[in-house]
Design brief:
The structure holds 2 protein chains of 2 kinds.
Chain A (H helix, E strand, L loop, with lengths): L1 H15 L23 H15 L17
Chain B lengths: L1 H30 L12 H4 L7 E19 L11 E2 L2 E14 L3 E13 L16 E15 L2 E12 L2 E14 L4 E17 L5 E21 L2 E14 L7 E3 L5 E3 L5 E15 L3 E12 L4 E14 L2 E12 L25 E13 L12 E12 L3 E13 L1
Classes of the chains: A mainly alpha, B mainly beta.
Chain lengths: ~70, ~400
């Protein structure tokens, strides 16, 4: 049931993509504050910090392992 | 009469439309520059960047972070026999990032982080990351991105990590494609890491070498939802094999002594991440993050974060953030292991825990075209955070970054 809800939620998000927002209306999205991810340096720093201390590393694009034997 | 006028007006409409188009084209032609000769000072190549294979520096950034950690964990030997022991350590972490383009299609990113860990293990081989009192570690990480066409990028990554008891190699490949007038971006990546490190016995003596491999695959979708909303969903899975501990953690035993960790030799981890950014009408932004994690050791984790940003001037914004993480423990986590346990760990990172992070930052970005006092392209960022965990761990973090974009 949870998986079904998740699939439905993702599908609902996908339907909004049918109406493409024109590029000349994306000025707000170009602001660095609006980036969905942190900058690469800050993202790496924070990810490494949490990976080392929470035993829940990997699975989201960053390799677990690679130094720091605790991962 | 009225009917005749209507017919005449309808007949003249196409003529008026054609006339309007002709006038528009003529007016554009009068204001558009004519093509300049290649040797003219107004040639396209002289006004715009000339296509070239030369390497051009795009940005240089230095990030410096200091971590001050306090706390106790049962995996540490720096305490009474039945624990918990100290996890006190101080980490100084400078890193530099250089981005350069080569011609029109290639972008290189060189990232060199360095870890200097002091007071890591005041009493015995133990700590979160190192096996001696002071440790220096560093990596060289190189990513080259090739723009196959305006919609598709392919990147290749290679990295090496050197640390006192550690050697590690990482390599990866990624593909990114934008669709629907860049409103949708999909990406996929594969990453493999191989670690080779010293194995320690429980009394701290070296006991040969150990290794492990980690392979990660991930998919991501970024979608512009409205003129003020963008969202991202990603899923990844990591498979690990080999020695999956750090080889020096200890476990208090029911016999009153200490033993080594006993861990499975494989682990599969997966994570589903959702992110969204929403522009706020008062020149602010709200960023939300959620991560669901599960692995084959029995850990299920939920991480949530909210960031509130506020632009003060076109060059300056400030932000505050709060993160909450909760996880169940590994199925074989214990603080007092029976002697016949197949697997055992007392690592506080693998325990059931909740953690919180509170932080804030200030960011300055000067434009590359012109800046105050002639300073152009400056990036400055200062961030302060406090991390605290329910099982006795606290970390104070301060980081600052300075850089220039060219």
């Amino acid at each position: 049931m949870r998986a079904l809800r998740l699939v439905l939620a993702i599908a609902a998000m996908g339907t909004t993509a049918c109406a493409t927002v024109p590029q000349n209306r994306r000025a707000r999205l170009a602001d660095p504050m609006m980036s969905v991810t942190d900058g690469p340096l800050e993202a790496a720093r924070r990810q490494k910090f949490y990976d080392v201390r929470e035993g829940a590393a990997g699975g989201d694009g960053a390799a677990a392992g690679g130094g720091c034997g605790c991962q | 009469m009225e009917r005749r006028r209507a017919v005449a007006a309808a007949a003249s409409r196409p003529l008026v439309a054609v006339l309007r188009v002709a006038l528009l084209v003529a007016s554009i032609a009068t204001i558009a520059p004519t093509s300049a000769r290649a040797d003219s000072p107004l040639a396209d190549d002289r006004i715009l960047d000339a296509p070239s294979d030369a390497i051009r520096l795009r940005s240089v950034t230095l990030l410096v972070t200091g971590f001050d950690q306090f706390g106790y964990g049962y995996q540490s030997k720096a305490g009474p026999t039945m624990g918990p022991g100290s996890e006190r350590e101080t980490i100084f972490e400078p890193e530099v990032e250089i981005v350069a383009t080569q011609g029109d299609r290639l972008t290189h990113r060189l990232w060199v982080p360095v870890d200097l860990v002091t007071n890591a293990s005041p009493h015995a081989p133990d700590v979160t990351t190192q096996a001696s009192q002071q440790v220096q570690g560093g990596s060289v990480d190189w990513t080259t991105t090739y723009r196959a066409n305006p919609k598709t990028d392919v990147s290749i990554r290679g990295a090496i990590h050197l640390e006192e008891p550690f050697r590690s190699w990482t390599s990866g490949i990624g593909v990114r494609r934008s669709l629907a007038d860049d409103a949708t971006v999909i990406s996929a990546s594969l990453l493999a890491a191989f670690d080779w490190f010293d194995r320690f016995s429980v009394d701290g003596t070296k006991n040969g070498r150990a290794d492990r491999s980690s392979s990660t695959g991930s998919l991501a979708l970024t979608q512009v939802l409205t003129p003020t909303t963008v969202a991202n969903v990603s899923y990844g899975i990591t498979s690990q094999d080999g020695e999956l501990g750090n080889a020096w953690n200890i476990v208090p035993l029911a016999s009153g002594s200490r033993g080594s960790e006993l861990l499975p030799t494989s682990r599969t981890r997966s994570a589903l991440v959702g992110r969204a950014s929403q522009w706020l009408p008062w020149n602010g932004a709200l960023r939300l993050y959620y991560r669901l994690y599960a692995d084959s050791w029995g850990i299920v984790a939920h991480s949530m974060e909210g960031q509130l940003m506020q632009r003060i001037t076109p060059e300056l914004y400030v932000g505050g953030y709060y993160r909450f993480h909760t996880q169940s423990g590994a199925s074989f986590f214990t603080t007092l292991a029976p002697l016949d346990a197949t697997f055992r760990t007392a690592d506080s990172d693998l325990a059931p825990l909740d953690s919180q992070t509170v932080g804030g930052k200030i960011v300055v970005d000067l434009p590359t075209s012109a800046g105050p006092y002639g300073v152009r392209g400056l990036h400055f960022e200062l961030a302060c955070e406090r991390y605290f965990r329910t099982n006795d761990l606290q970390v104070n973090i301060v980081s600052w970054a300075t850089g220039f974009r060219f």
